[in-house]
């Protein structure tokens, strides 16, 4: 089926904001054997009308993102109703829930906000759990006047669109798409190996299995290996992947590495502390994004300044003077002292040079020491080199630190 | 002039790769008073032909990215030549430089590679300093057969496209575009006010000014107000915005609130520590994303567990027992002790209930106390209520904490 995405929003075309919807939607519909055949990005305003009019005749499933909010430039709902010749009526339930939402947030009611409760006749409401504007679904050819595709109007903010898509859009798509039951999609999340190294390890062998489609999705320090096909063929492909990538696979259930860690620690009733210099709070932030983190995460020490390393985590000043703050010795001291001071089972520590300044010939920008300390085993320190921009460096260092911890947890599970 | 970008590449539609071209090109052409009016993302193959045929009649400047390489799915050059009825001829100079390039890299020559030296009659070559495929420029209506826009074929990899754009495309655009340097874009970044409240405060008044375009872009706790138009009209609009939004505006130069804070602190030679319970490292992480943060950021204390608040920041156990960890009293103790313990000029602290569990009737999920402590003035604590999903809650609390600090810094600047 011809799937088309229309992203609306002048801000997208000004280049100030990266669109996240294409990537999200493409990944979500992939297991249904659907691919996006075209994406258009359009400004708020009349261009939306022209494009929809054209696409109504060509697309079979059409996702339109943005333009459902309360402000004057939000006109998607009204434009679609007009194109399809559907009257808008105010939905009492939506209106009440909007009022409730605003009261709970102590936000003043304005008449513009009420527009978000307008629903074109015959459209199905897709509840928005994280925002005020609901999504809308129009079955194909909803109006006798116009031929039209299955049409989904979705909110612009990713944190609103994404849960709505999973909860309300996918179930509708499953009814629309003539599903071949036997087709499956499996995803192996891999840490610490680049895409080309993975391709070299598994590419030829997997492509030799008939009717298995292989794809990759890479993020800093992280690659999703995706196979699509019939279950029996995927079993063969999965065996190849497991043999080749082994412990580098950290999840087959779509979890992040920090979710995997929180789960492993919870299962063992163990706890974690982190001591961060160069990752600057990223480890703590990612761990505390996981619901239930408070069960296992005790404390984070972001010792950014040298003096903070000395004051907060009792790192010996002489150690810093002798080896430098970015050194194995200081990394070890940070991890061991964080663990002892917090009373946690484990601690991980990072110290490195994020850039853009601060590098030397001896320790260039991108150098980082990562240490794992445990109440039950010896301390392990590793040196990595991640020359890149500041934020990517932090992501790569965090990923390496989490991976060091994860491997130790798994090893002691199995040992 | 109607500017359209066509991004070609199946990998873009699979969602595995984020397109970087729209953002780059939009920013580069903005000073020429050019704005992208539409962007299409298309798979390799016949869809490109259909789209180009349609867009030749509508666009005035058309950028096509990708599909210039040596592999079978690279067909942009040939498709355009065919559509415009221009013969391809092999350019001897390009061919020689391609051979030289491959020899230097010890890559075997194949006939496919030679295709990249084919140039449609009348097209201008845009040299590629970082790759093998050159770009091509076709002046408007180059062929007597077809009406066509100013057409630029550009390579897919950003590291090839970007230098080519700056060196070869911009000079051509400057000749094409009748330059008016009067159109401007101004962005006011606003914290702590929702989109609809802002719209209510300024919408009618701004729209009453002729030829000013108004737009919004909302993130958690944060809204960009964007006005476009001639300088004199923007001065009027800007005055309205400043009067209505006042100190809620934290940047007019596109900086984030954490960048604004690092800059304010640097200018004053002052330092910051953060004590985080519910934001779990997000404050520290965002501050340390700013290059130069090490000048002003001393330490972050992520005291997630109650015991960590007692052990690390010396919060009185009785205070926690009496008021609860989520309370004004504990929030004050966290901020004041973090400031004293780190020796920083200022500290901000957060303690709240992120959810999804842990709320009570008295302190529902979303409750958060935020405190500002200073070496020079009294401590200020505030209570907020941000009922939402866990990550949005953290973002909203972080934004409120940064805003409290920012307002105090500005006030003491002015006082």
Overall body shape of chain A:
globular
Quaternary form? homodimer
CATH homolog superfamily of the largest domain in chain A? MoaB/Mog-like domain
> How many individual helices of chain A?
15
- Which architecture of the largest domain in chain A does the CATH hierarchy give at level 2? 3-Layer(aba) Sandwich
Domain unit count of chain A: 3
Mean pLDDT of chain A: 91
Here the CATH topology of the largest domain in chain A equals Molybdenum Cofactor Biosythetic Enzyme, Chain A
Order of the strands making up the biggest sheet of chain A: 2-1-3-8-7-6
Hey, which two chains have the biggest interface? A-B, 92 and 91 residues
Question: What this model shows, in words?
Answer:
- The structure is a homodimer of 415-residue chains.
- Chain A is an alpha/beta fold and 415 residues long.
- The first copy, chain A, folds into 3 domains: 3-176, Molybdenum Cofactor Biosythetic Enzyme, Chain A (3-Layer(aba) Sandwich), CATH 3.40.980; 184-251, 2-Layer Sandwich (Alpha-Beta Plaits), CATH 3.30.70; 257-414, CinA-like (Maf protein, Alpha-Beta Complex).
- In chain A, 41% of the residues lie in helices and 23% in strands.
- Chain A has 15 helices and 17 strands.
- Chain A has helices at residues 10-13, 21-29, 46-56, 76-84, 92-104, 111-114, 158-176, 195-207, 231-245, 257-268, 282-288, 306-313, 317-323, 328-342, 390-414; strands spanning 3-8, 36-42, 61-65, 88-90, 118-120, 124-126, 135-138, 150-154, 183-191, 213-219, 222-230, 249-251, 272-276, 297-303, 346-352, 367-374, 380-385.
- A 6-stranded mixed beta sheet of chain A has the order 2-1-3-8-7-6, with helices on both faces.
- In chain A, helix 11 (282-288) links the parallel strand 13 (272-276) and strand 14 (297-303).
- In chain A, helix 2 (21-29) packs parallel to helix 7, helix 3 packs across helix 4 and helix 10 packs parallel to helix 15.
- The longest helix of chain A is centred in the last third of the chain and has 25 residues, at 390-414.
- The radius of gyration of chain A is 26 Å and the shape is globular.
- Strand 14 of chain A pairs antiparallel with strand 14 (297-303) of chain B.
